[in-house]
């Protein structure tokens, strides 16, 4: 039931005040799964080695709207030498986020920590599903401390003289 003003009209909705963080859209931007040695790889007994690479891109779409793309590449190898790839999964999980009313350094921190924290569970689920659909045992990626990754990236940008370390139009990468 809506509220009524004393004169019988509806009370206008209050506009939120202060800083606003919103998730506008979450989507898969790109995905790839490769298992070049299937079906022969299913008979091999070598211990698999997993390597994960993370990267993040941020693009400003409007005054207070940003696209954040979290890239996760997972490579599984077994044995020595050439052609030892068991599978490779690449996922670019993206989201459009609204960030209004924040100081630039807070916006930068939110883009580098909160946004990937929102996106990572989606990428993690998709990667697990792809690996299982590829005929391999279920694999669950461990949680990632994006706060620590952001802090390290900020230290590196400041050491390189990047000024305030603005992430709003940049790309960061790292191994996890």
Q: Mind sketching the topology for me?
A:
Layout lengths: L19 E15 L13 E13 L4 E14 L6 E16 L3 H9 L1 H20 L12 H14 L11 E5 L1
Antiparallel strand pairs: 1-4, 2-3, 2-5, 3-4
Description:
With 176 residues, the chain is an alpha+beta fold. It has a domain at 20-134: Bacterial Protein-export protein SecB (Roll). 24% of the residues lie in helices and 36% in strands. It is built from three helices and five strands, in the order E-E-E-E-H-H-H-E. The chain has helices at residues 104-112, 114-133, 146-159; strands at 20-34, 48-60, 65-78, 85-100, 171-175. Residues 169-176 have low confidence and may be disordered. It is found in: Cytoplasm. It holds the Pfam family SecB. This is Protein-export protein SecB. Belongs to the SecB family.
Order of helices and strands: EEEEHHHE
What is the CA-based Rg, rounded? 21 Å
Indicate the CATH topology of the domain at 20-134.
Bacterial Protein-export protein SecB
CATH superfamily of the domain at 20-134: SecB-like
The number of E-state strands comes to 5
Poorly predicted runs are 169-176
N-to-C terminal Cα separation, in Å? Answer: 51 Å
Strand order, main sheet: write it out: 1-4-3-2-5
* Main beta-sheet annotation: 5 strands, antiparallel
Category by helix and strand content: alpha+beta
- Helical percent range? 10-25%
Strand content: 35-45%
Which second-level CATH architecture of the domain at 20-134 applies?
Roll
- Helical element count? 3
State mean pLDDT (0 to 100 scale): 86
- Can you tell me the CATH class of the domain at 20-134? Alpha Beta
Shape: elongated
């Amino acid at each position: 039931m809506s509220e009524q003003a004393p004169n019988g009209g509806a009370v206008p909705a209050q506009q939120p005040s202060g800083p606003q963080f919103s998730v506008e859209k979450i989507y898969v931007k790109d995905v790839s799964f490769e298992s070049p040695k299937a079906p022969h790889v299913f008979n091999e007994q070598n211990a698999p080695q997993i390597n994960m690479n993370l990267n993040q891109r941020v693009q400003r779409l409007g005054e207070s709207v940003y696209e954040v793309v979290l890239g996760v590449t997972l490579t599984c190898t077994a044995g020595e030498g050439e052609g030892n790839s068991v599978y490779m999964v690449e996922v670019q999980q993206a989201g459009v986020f609204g960030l209004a009313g924040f100081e630039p350094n807070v916006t930068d921190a939110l883009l580098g920590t909160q946004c990937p924290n929102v996106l990572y569970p989606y990428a993690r689920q998709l990667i697990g599903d792809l690996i299982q659909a590829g005929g391999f045992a279920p694999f669950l990626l461990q949680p990632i401390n994006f706060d620590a990754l952001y802090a390290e990236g900020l230290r590196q940008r400041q050491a390189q003289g990047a000024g305030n370390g603005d992430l709003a139009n940049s790309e960061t990468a790292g191994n996890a």
